[in-house]
Amino acid sequence: MPTSFYNGIENNTNPTRNALWVSLSALLYGVKGYDSGMLNALQAVPKFYEAFPQLKTDSRLLGTTTALMYLPGLVFPAFGAWLADKVGRKIPLLVAIFGAIITPIIQAFSVNLGQLMAGRFLMGMFSCVGAVSGLAMCAELSHPRFRAQAMSLQLSMYFIGNILCSSTSYATIAHLKQSTWSYKLPLLLQLVLPAICLPLAIWIPQSPRWLISKGRVEEARQILANLHANGKLDDPLVEHEILEVENAIALEKEQHVGWLSLLKTKANRWRMFIVVHSAAGAQLNGIGIIAYYLVPMLKVVGITDSKVQSQLLIGMGVMNLCVNTGATYVVDRAGRRPMWLSSTLGMLISLIVITGTSAAFTKNPNPSLGSATVAFIFLF
């Protein structure tokens, strides 16, 4: 439903309550951002390679350790969605947050590479389940007038988490370089954001959509009234939202909507192709090279100082945050398709330049080639 539809309905929103639930969902993406940047940041910490020397000498092990964080994404998002529909969004969310508090302890105090890898796999598993429930809660509890902005805020929080990770690693390099805490502390601090999320998740109401799907309409009405109408049960917006959800659920039951429905009709197959194509494109466009192996890339072009590497990681996170936040406010004006196509073209050009300049540097170690590589990494 377009945002303009709600302009004619009286706005009785409770902004404080809405902000709390949006903050919880956004913090979950901050957790994901911190976790995703962790191994990249740790590659700039000398003591990390001393503790796990296999990662320095065997690129396959480094790639496997990096991938283990994302391997659960092949299975657990579907499991998380099924669980959220079965028992509600709140229980999977709490389990995921609790897991995200425990697994950093496993990683920080790992005595061998196997334990570190197991910790990363478990973190990825809990992250998948939490992301599914968190996204659903954000969409279902946010006021429709600013739901799009609330969803976009999550990616901004992802980059804030990434910046926190890089900053923590930089601080430990600066002050704890000769101690094993230079890599243990950033790993351990992964639990801080989930620990902040935990009390919010305990307090968060159940999903109104899930309650309506279970026939608990009055409970859903009370939650929507509290969040969107300052407790006014007969508010027109509340009535409209309940009717909208009831109609959507009835239509799903009538059409027997399930996973196979994605492939049953030509239109659905086309939609599925667009979803898979755009999602795969977002992961296979070269972003993984920079997101997970920026430190080795910097070493290739002559930047070997661990402090400088960490500073560039922080700078990359800050730039990503600024660009993403700015894009959030212009996407409705500029259009999603033009922004997607233009950014994809820009990434292609940048990646070509990065490949060329870094390859040229290996043959002719000219500082200007290294600087050009770094500049286009930022543009990428």
From TrEMBL:
The keyword Cell cycle does not apply. PROSITE patterns: MFS, SUGAR_TRANSPORT_1. InterPro entries: MFS_dom, MFS_sugar_transport-like, MFS_Sugar_Transporters, MFS_trans_sf, Sugar_transporter_CS. One of its GO terms (molecular function) is carbohydrate:proton symporter activity. The chain crosses the membrane at residues 67-84, 91-109, 121-143, 155-173, 185-204, 272-293, 313-331, 338-361. It is a multi-pass membrane protein. GO terms for cellular component: membrane. Pfam families: Sugar_tr. Keywords: Membrane, Transmembrane, Transmembrane helix. It is found in: Membrane. Residues 21-380 form the Major facilitator superfamily (MFS) profile domain. It comes from the Eukaryota. Belongs to the major facilitator superfamily. Sugar transporter (TC 2.A.1.1) family. This is Major facilitator superfamily (MFS) profile domain-containing protein.
